[in-house]
Design a protein that fits this description.
CATH architecture: 3-Layer(aba) Sandwich
CATH topology: Glutaredoxin
Distance between the termini: 29 Å
Number of strands: 8
CATH class: Alpha Beta
Order of helices and strands: HEEEEHEHEHEEH
């Protein structure tokens, strides 16, 4: 399903950096996403939009700071073609729903299983990946930082300005 080239690209490009551009734009695998209602969706559904994938968990402190900022980014840029997907890595759907309701986040939320997370090489959370309109990796943001959020916003605006939708 997922080649070692993506795992290698993520590992080499995003090692310990706050933010890191992909060495060359690699396509992100077409992973299966399960929504909170149990329906399955393909990541390719979101092609054509600049897409932010945010891997998170309810027990993750930095994730609790990052999700509201990603919501603000969606509120600002969603009408221009940005989609932010909150990909929960290991919580039961009931807990995820309670957290999202409490945090007042309206981002599309999906569940990712441990096998998919491992195959992608996502070894820490939060971990955010910015994809261009073709589903290729533009930049990744391991962990959370104010600088990373600022860069994500700038990169997203640049991608949105490159045409499309």
């Amino acid at each position: 399903m997922m080649g070692t080239s993506l795992v290698l690209a993520l590992t080499l490009a995003f090692g310990g950096a706050e933010t890191a551009p992909a060495p060359s734009r690699q396509p992100f695998p077409d992973i299966e996403l399960a929504d909170l209602g149990g329906q399955h969706h393909s990541l390719t559904t979101f092609r054509g939009a600049v897409t932010v994938l945010n891997f998170w968990a309810t027990w993750c402190g930095p994730c609790k700071w990052e999700l509201p900022q990603l919501q603000k980014l969606t509120n600002e840029l969603g009408g221009r073609g940005l989609v932010v997907l909150a990909l929960n890595v290991d919580d039961p759907p009931v807990r995820v729903k309670q957290f999202i309701d409490y945090a007042k986040v309206s981002l599309p939320v999906f569940l990712i299983d441990a096998r998919t997370q491992g195959a992608l090489g996502i070894d820490r959370i939060p971990f955010t990946v910015l994809l261009d309109r073709e589903g290729k990796i533009v930049r990744a943001y391991p962990g959370y930082s104010e600088e990373g959020m600022k860069d994500l916003r700038e990169q997203a605006i640049a991608l949105l300005g490159q045409g499309g939708k």
